[in-house]
Design a protein that fits this description.
It is a single chain. A hairpin with a 5-residue loop joins strand 2 (63-66) and strand 3. The protein has 318 residues and is of the alpha+beta class. It has helices at 2-18, 25-31, 33-36, 41-57, 90-102, 108-121, 149-158, 232-239, 258-263, 285-290, 302-317; strands spanning 23-24, 63-66, 72-75, 162-166, 175-187, 190-197, 202-207, 211-217, 246-253, 266-268, 274-281, 296-300.
């Protein structure tokens, strides 16, 4: 079935590209065997319209022209379907190839691969070994493990409101959020969504790993303007204490919490299997510390210790 459709699309594309005048549906049906085998006119019309839409989605520019007799004809001019000269040098081509390798999951993998093939067919030079990762032990990837990624990516692209259940770090159970999605961004191995929270009437950032259940689309337009620049990373960094102006002292179990150790301003190794660290303290640090569970104990300040205890109690009740 897939081979038959691909052959039919190829034949239709060749007919539209090879003609110098618009071809009517009648002429196209008589030129393509698969259309001749269509049982009825309605069956042919449905097949032709689907094929025409598929070719346009693939990038073929199909013009619709009405002749003197009032009959509609179709053609694909070669000038309109020819890429301009590719002026990328080898290093720029290598950068594109490297970017295409990053997306190994979700719908972007096929789109990136297809775009690269079209550019190479149009004369884009092959990548140099400088960026080649084929034989390397390290390969660039953006991990996409969350089921919410793909529907949210499409919702951001189509400017479509969504509804999903979201569990905050301090909550034992998820709650429903109605969001106008703006953009997705990956930071420190986690995906975040920035958008307008309709119920709270404010901009919010959501961590995709805390979205439970399915993301449901909703009809209608956005109610809030989309900013020109959405500072997802800056917002997340602020919540995670990256822009901290104070410091906190914690006890960390030996051999654990390497992300905390990487950010520590000082580390004092203890003889009891626990180390004492001084780390930057900003908004959201309590939520991050909770993720390390029993491997972290807050010494000071007292308000941070109290926040961490409250969060742990909320998780225990859930």
């Amino acid at each position: 079935m897939a081979i038959a459709k691909a052959e039919r699309l190829m034949n239709l594309a060749l007919c539209l590209l090879g003609t110098r005048r618009p071809l009517s549906k009648r002429e196209l049906r008589g030129s393509i065997e698969a259309y001749l085998e269509a049982g009825t006119d309605d069956s042919f019309n449905r097949m032709f319209e689907r094929d025409k839409d598929d070719l346009r989605e693939l990038g073929l520019v199909i013009e619709t022209v009405e002749n003197l007799e009032g009959e509609t004809g179709y053609l694909a001019r070669r000038d309109s379907n020819r890429l301009p000269p590719i002026t990328l040098d080898a290093e720029e081509a290598a950068a594109l190839g490297l970017a295409a390798k990053v997306w190994q999951q979700a719908r972007l993998a096929g789109a990136a691969s297809g775009a690269l093939q079209k550019l190479r067919a149009a004369g884009m030079p092959e990548a140099e070994d400088t960026y080649d990762t084929q034989h390397s032990a390290l390969e660039p990837r953006i991990p996409v493990h969350e089921a919410a990624f793909e529907p949210l990516m499409l919702a951001c692209r189509d400017r479509r409101p969504v509804v999903f259940d979201y569990r905050k770090a301090t909550a034992a159970r998820p709650e429903t959020r109605q969001v106008e999605p703006w953009t997705l961004e990956c930071w420190r191995g986690h995906w975040y969504l920035a958008g307008w929270d309709r119920d709270r009437g404010a901009e919010r950032v959501f961590r995709l790993s805390r979205i439970t259940g399915k993301v449901r689309s909703r009809a209608g337009a956005f109610t809030a303007p989309v900013p020109d620049v959405v500072t997802v990373r800056e917002t997340v960094e602020s919540w995670a204490g990256e822009t901290a102006t104070r410091s906190a002292r914690i006890r960390l179990r030996a051999g654990c919490g390497y992300p905390l150790r990487a950010r520590a301003q000082s580390v004092a190794e203890g003889a009891d299997g626990w180390d004492e660290l001084e780390i930057p303290y900003g908004h959201g640090l309590d939520a991050w510390l909770v993720e390390f569970g029993p491997d972290v104990v807050v010494i000071e300040p007292a308000d941070l210790r109290a926040d961490v205890v409250d969060r742990l109690r909320a998780v225990a009740k859930g």
